[in-house]
TrEMBL record:
NCBIfam families: pdi_dom. Keywords: Redox-active center, Repeat, Signal. One of its GO terms (molecular function) is protein disulfide isomerase activity. PROSITE patterns: THIOREDOXIN_1, THIOREDOXIN_2. The lineage of its organism: Eukaryota, Metazoa, Spiralia, Lophotrochozoa, Mollusca. This is Thioredoxin domain-containing protein. Residues 27-140, 148-263, 267-398 form the Thioredoxin domain. Belongs to the protein disulfide isomerase family. Residues 1-17 form the signal peptide.
Length: 404
């Protein structure tokens, strides 16, 4: 810290010694955005949120940014009731203030919350549109100066029930604790993330007035704690949350239509009546331990005991999965085909019985596995026609019968 302050002091001395060269410094860096010293910085942040440029007058990048920063200040600082003030701090003059905020390069742009205790560092492009987008993403209630006249001429539009929610380490837990969330974990530098960004915005617009789901995003370069907690190791990662719990990772196409269908399917699935296990009647002596001609539903509680004896062909599925829906009537027919054999055609709903699906390393839907006497035998990877499925079960049943 001492070395850093000494370096800034040397820069400040250099500025004073060359004051003729930098006499137009204030003009270079504009006068719309207020320039703060330490006292003004502290007192102003107590009152309002601020977007602050920490700069040095000799810095070429700072000079290039100055007119854009001035334009940004015109948009926000002159709007009555603006929720953010655009400001600046000259680090060659206010070295202690810049040292307190770990400024090690110029320009450094930080968005401070009221009170100054928390902030977000801006690391994007330095054009006006990108800076405005950053503010709009992180500051609710922004009204731009050039929109006021247009707003006055147009009828008031109802406030949407939900919008693209921007999460961070501090807000994540509280936001997702109740309800359904579809969340994009991303990094600003990621090309795939940049390509997905407008599609994700459109998805948020599509569900703007739906109070059953929130479309959200979290920047993993700024919120590493949450991203690490959920094992995010690639970008973008899209996760579905329900009442604070991670349900699953989206693996489909990243088109607006595919994402919209996924959200709609998940909401429809959540709106169904909850599955209630019915108490099964006691088995008569000698009665087969499976439902004749019907698919048997297995649960976390019943799975191990149910498959402990005999041959079991198990479908691991999710109700929202399109491939699972197409397979369902075929699976029912398969159960009917083996109604006179001691073979059980079973299924496990992985949205309800996650532990069993995890134990059996289910990575996609539907997953079809064959078990004999409680032991995993093999995965089925063939065609999902009734004929092929029937032949697979028959061959393994015959093999088992021969062994007996």
């Amino acid at each position: 810290m001492a070395a850093y302050i000494l370096a800034l002091l040397l820069l400040s001395t250099y500025t004073l010694l060359t004051r003729v060269h930098f006499a137009c410094g204030d003009d270079d860096h504009g006068n719309i955005a207020p320039s703060y010293d330490s006292d003004a910085f502290t007192s102003s942040l107590k009152q309002q949120r601020h977007f602050v440029m920490f700069y040095a007058p000799w810095c070429g990048h700072c000079k290039n940014l100055a007119p854009t920063w001035d334009e940004l200040a015109k948009m926000y600082n002159k709007v009555e009731g603006s929720p953010v003030i655009i400001a600046k701090v000259d680090c060659t003059v206010h070295t202690g203030l810049c040292a307190d905020h770990d400024i090690v390069g110029f320009p450094t742009l930080k968005l401070f919350e009221v009170g100054g205790q928390s902030h977000k560092r801006y690391a994007g492009k330095r054009d006006l549109d990108s800076l405005k987008a950053f503010i709009q993403d992180h500051v609710h209630g922004v009204r731009l100066l050039d929109n006021i006249e247009a707003d006055a001429k147009q009828p008031e539009v109802p406030e949407p029930k939900s919008s693209l929610v921007v999460l961070d380490d501090e807000s994540f837990k509280g936001h997702v604790s109740k309800g359904s969330f579809f969340i994009k974990f991303y990094a600003p530098w990621c090309g795939h993330c940049q390509k997905l960004a407008p599609v994700w915005d459109d998805l948020a617009d599509t569900f703007n007035h739906n109070n059953k789901v929130s479309i959200a995003k979290i920047d993993c370069t700024q919120s590493s704690v949450i991203c690490k907690q959920y094992g995010i190791d690639g970008y973008p990662t899209l996760l579905w949350f329900k009442d604070g719990e991670k349900i699953e990772q989206y693996q489909g196409a990243r088109t607006h239509e595919a994402l919209k269908q996924y959200v709609s399917d998940r909401l429809q699935d959540g709106a169904r009546e909850p599955h209630v296990e019915q108490e099964e009647p006691a088995l008569e002596p000698g009665q087969a331990e499976h439902s004749v001609g019907a698919v048997k539903d297995l649960t976390d509680e019943t799975f191990k005991s149910a498959i402990s004896s005999g041959l079991h062909f198990v479908k691991f599925f999710a109700p929202w999965c399109g491939h699972c829906k197409r397979l369902a009537p075929t699976w029912d027919d398969l159960a009917k085909d083996f109604q006179s054999h001691p073979v059980s055609i079973d299924r496990v709903d992985c949205t309800l019985h996650k532990a069993t699906c995890d134990d059996n390393q289910v990575r996609g839907y539907p997953t079809l596995k064959l078990f004999r006497n409680g032991e995993f035998l093999k995965d089925y990877r063939g065609s999902r026609t009734l004929e092929e499925l029937h032949e697979f079960v028959k061959k393994n049943y015959d093999d088992s019968h021969d062994e007996l």
